[in-house]
Task: inverse folding
């Protein structure tokens, strides 16, 4: 997939120019969908032969059609049609062929043993090969516009797969990107410009030393998340066609949004939210509140707890899954330096791999298996003094993700239109 | 605060140092602004530790999370040259590359190294077939459960086998768990692709195995990543003594008139365009030509013609007939058939009812059929590419090369399949070459390595 999509990225100077598919490409994309549809129910190789003939035919095939075909391969799946299970047929036939009988005799004898005809047996022999499987109609009809968008996604991802580091400036939905980075074992640093924009730098440990492709796959997974931000700009240094060049993606690029970002991290949090609501009527629990800036980075609390009658009493709560003492120490240092003292860190006791004692005076709550709402309430009631203020200024634009504007489905042009 | 060194996803993190500038001078270490710590690729582990000891800097070492080593039930008896290879490797500080021809028991050398060291070991192999074969061999000799990364499995053990691809994806969690790395077909590394696998490991001891060592810059990189070349033995040193002796038979075949016409026409179309392009762009690569060709109707016709010429040669009428009679003649021997492409392999499989071994066939079925082949329940296998490296067929006596535009190295490896010692065995290799076609110079080029080996 990658190589055909990669061919749609050219390098001009030190800039990657992705050649997006647009409305101009709709006619031939429609033809391609038509070609696939025409071969439904037939062995896949017939379609492949037709496509191969197109590649070397007298008329030049439109650039990008091979990539589009690969996108369609994921939509038009195939199925095996065989009387005898192919592996079983092979085992029987090839072991029987030790005998000195003729080919026809061998096939007949095996077919009789398996209760079928020689012809059916021969057809079953390799019915599971990619070329012999039958093409199946897709579950839903393919629209030419969505095919174009999926191709564009493939183009962007092909370039990103050849990068070791990306920088994303965005408004809204930063959380999903940070979470993805953490989940994939990438390093994510966050900074804020004076204008209030968040800039994330995502890379892997080894990226410090070389332009490695090791993290490309995970960096490419960020692309479908971008359209969920109101504004974004992604910059990636890629090694394309043997040259170093920079790819920039903005909302002006025709990219499809992926699945909506997941709202909650884990069952642990779900459970805490549920139990907390039951445990107290005094406090309101807000899930995934705005991030807080601290010493050049952002902290994404899981919850904000606000007192109903005294809203100035506001606590943040973060549940830390995997941690080391060094990590917790660094985090506490950052919080202290930023003057944030209303954040409760809940750390999982069973994951403390070093057994190092933590400072006594910090708002850290150890837990096993579940975070106890009563313990949290006790801790914040103890610490709450009068005259508290809220944490660092909320970040502009950090709200729940909104659905990005989808490209209106266009009428699929019939072949006559082109 | 004391200096602490930890393992972080294939790299080393150096935290809380008293003097930063001293850390930057350590081998491989750089300042990482992203986490405000010093960092180094894991492969520098032993060098960094040695340097810190030499400097007298106190530090906490949290890097390794080693698997327990293994105590070995039995060790294979080594042949004299295998023992010599192990000695040379040990003398080089247990870092280095051993060059042995295919069929000379590279796996035994590796097992002896694992047994002698008794350390946790990660074996890296290029293909899924080798993954399986190494696992089996190790289980048999070491008598322990063997870990496996690749072919859909992810199980770590004191001795683990991993494909290059799977290791590349999972080294961030495997990198600090093994003391010994065994790299099979080590010539795959050194040129940049997948080198991260070796860079992300802390293993102090490294053994590279290959039949065909790298040259030039890649070889220099391998010295860094695995170690220097410590032992080399050519195929000529072994033939007739430890490897089965073999006969090479070239069968020169003709094309039918229709085939000849189709071949010549396709060849003409291709050569006209190709020569024209070579004049325009001397020294350009094949891929450059393909890109250029895609832009004009003549160019596309040339590429189509090139494919046509190849497809005419892949399984000519004469080849099919000769293959039929060879299979009949060697009815009681184990026969391996090699083709240029998958399509020809399947055609032969259908026509002669012999089992194809290709990447399309699942692992379990491949296993079963190879066992059946070993036990003599099926008589022949046909393959395009899968059999090329390290496929262990102890008792194949006949090889038939139907086609293949392979390099010298691949050819030596293919023929090497047949050269496994067996009682009173003499291997025969037939090469089917079509007269007055590109196959003649191709075959000559391929055979050079083998003939050179025999004439020494």
Result:
């Amino acid at each position: 997939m990658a190589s055909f999509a990669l061919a749609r990225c050219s390098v001009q100077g030190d800039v990657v120019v992705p050649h997006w598919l647009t409305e101009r490409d709709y006619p031939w994309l429609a033809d391609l969908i038509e070609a696939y549809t025409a071969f439904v129910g037939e062995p896949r190789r017939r379609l492949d032969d037709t496509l191969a003939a197109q590649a070397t035919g007298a008329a030049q095939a439109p650039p990008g059609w091979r990539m589009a075909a690969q996108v369609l391969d994921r939509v038009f799946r195939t199925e095996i049609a065989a009387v005898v299970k192919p592996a079983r047929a092979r085992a029987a036939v090839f072991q029987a062929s030790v005998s000195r009988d003729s080919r026809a005799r061998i096939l007949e004898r095996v077919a009789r043993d398996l209760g079928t005809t020689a012809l059916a047996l021969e057809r079953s022999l390799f019915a599971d090969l990619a070329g012999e499987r039958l093409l199946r109609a897709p579950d839903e009809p393919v629209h030419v516009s969505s095919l174009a968008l999926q191709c564009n996604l493939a183009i962007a991802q092909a370039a990103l797969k050849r990068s070791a580091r990306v920088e994303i400036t965005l408004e809204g939905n930063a959380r999903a990107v940070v979470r993805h980075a953490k989940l994939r074992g990438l390093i994510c640093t966050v900074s804020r410009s004076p204008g209030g924009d968040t800039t994330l730098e995502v890379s892997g440990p080894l990226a410090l030393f070389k332009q490695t492709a090791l993290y490309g796959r995970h960096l490419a997974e960020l692309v479908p998340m971008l359209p969920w931000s109101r504004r974004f700009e992604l910059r990636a240094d890629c090694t394309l066609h043997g040259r170093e060049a920079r790819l920039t993606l903005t909302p002006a690029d025709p990219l499809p949004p992926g699945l909506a970002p997941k709202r909650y991290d884990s069952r642990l949090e779900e459970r805490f939210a549920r139990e907390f609501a039951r445990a107290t009527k005094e406090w309101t629990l807000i899930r995934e509140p705005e991030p807080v800036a601290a010493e050049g980075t952002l902290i994404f609390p899981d919850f904000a707890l606000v007192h109903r009658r005294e809203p100035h009493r506001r606590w943040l709560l973060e549940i830390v899954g995997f941690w080391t003492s060094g990590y917790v120490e660094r985090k506490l240092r950052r919080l202290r330096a930023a003057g944030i003292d209303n954040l409760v860190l809940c750390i999982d006791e069973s994951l403390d791999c070093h057994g190092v004692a933590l400072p006594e005076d910090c708002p850290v709550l150890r837990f096993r298996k579940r975070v106890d709402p009563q313990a949290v309430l006790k801790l914040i009631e103890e610490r709450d003094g009068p005259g508290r203020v809220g944490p660092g200024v909320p970040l502009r634009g950090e709200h729940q993700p909104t659905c990005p504007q989808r490209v209106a489905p266009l009428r699929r042009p019939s072949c006559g239109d082109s | 605060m004391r200096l602490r060194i930890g393992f972080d996803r294939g790299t080393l993190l150096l935290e809380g140092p008293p003097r930063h500038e001293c850390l930057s001078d350590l081998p491989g270490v750089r300042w990482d602004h992203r986490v405000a710590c010093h960092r180094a690729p894991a492969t520098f582990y032993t060098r960094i530790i040695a340097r810190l000891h030499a400097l007298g800097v106190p530090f906490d070492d949290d890097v390794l999370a080693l698997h327990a080593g293994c105590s070995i039930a039995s060790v294979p008896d080594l042949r004299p040259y295998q023992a010599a290879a192990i000695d040379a490797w040990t003398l080089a500080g247990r870092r280095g590359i051993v060059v042995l021809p295919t069929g000379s028991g590279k796996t035994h050398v590796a097992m002896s190294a694992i047994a002698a060291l008794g350390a946790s070991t990660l074996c890296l192999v290029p293909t899924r077939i080798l993954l399986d074969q190494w696992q089996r061999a190790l289980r048999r000799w070491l008598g322990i459960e063997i870990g496996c990364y690749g072919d859909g499995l992810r199980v770590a053990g004191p001795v683990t086998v991993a494909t290059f691809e799977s290791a590349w994806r999972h080294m961030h969690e495997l990198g600090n768990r093994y003391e010994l790395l065994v790299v099979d077909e080590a010539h795959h590394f050194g040129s940049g692709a997948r080198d991260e696998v070796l860079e992300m490991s802390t293993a102090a001891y490294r053994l590279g195995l290959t039949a065909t060592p790298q040259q030039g810059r890649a070889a220099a990189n391998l010295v860094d990543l695995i170690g220097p070349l410590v032992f080399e033995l050519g195929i000529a040193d072994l033939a007739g003594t430890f490897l089965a002796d073999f006969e090479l038979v070239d069968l020169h075949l003709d094309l039918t008139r229709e085939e000849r016409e189709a071949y010549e026409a396709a060849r003409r179309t291709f050569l006209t365009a190709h020569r024209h392009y070579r004049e325009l762009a001397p020294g350009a690569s094949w891929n450059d030509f393909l890109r250029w060709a895609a832009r004009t109707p003549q160019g596309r016709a040339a590429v189509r013609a090139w494919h046509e010429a190849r497809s005419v040669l892949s399984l000519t009428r004469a080849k099919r007939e000769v293959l039929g009679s060879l299979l009949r003649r060697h009815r009681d021997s184990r026969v391996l058939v090699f083709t240029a492409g998958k399509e020809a392999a399947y055609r032969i499989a259908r026509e002669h009812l012999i089992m194809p071994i290709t990447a399309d066939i699942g692992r379990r079925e491949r296993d079963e059929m190879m066992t059946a082949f070993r036990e003599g329940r099926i008589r022949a296998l046909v393959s395009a590419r899968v059999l090329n490296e390290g496929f262990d067929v102890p008792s194949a006596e006949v090889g038939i090369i139907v086609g293949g535009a392979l390099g010298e190295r691949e050819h030596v490896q293919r023929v090497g399949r047949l050269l496994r010692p067996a009682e009173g065995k003499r291997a025969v290799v037939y090469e089917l070459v079509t007269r007055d076609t590109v196959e003649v110079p191709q075959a000559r080029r391929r055979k050079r390595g083998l003939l050179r080996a025999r004439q020494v």
Q: What stands out?
A: Residues 9 and 155 of chain B are 18 Å apart (CA to CA). The two ends of chain B are 64 Å apart (CA to CA). Chain B touches chain A through 47 residues (CB under 8 Å). DSSP finds 16 helices and 19 strands in chain B.
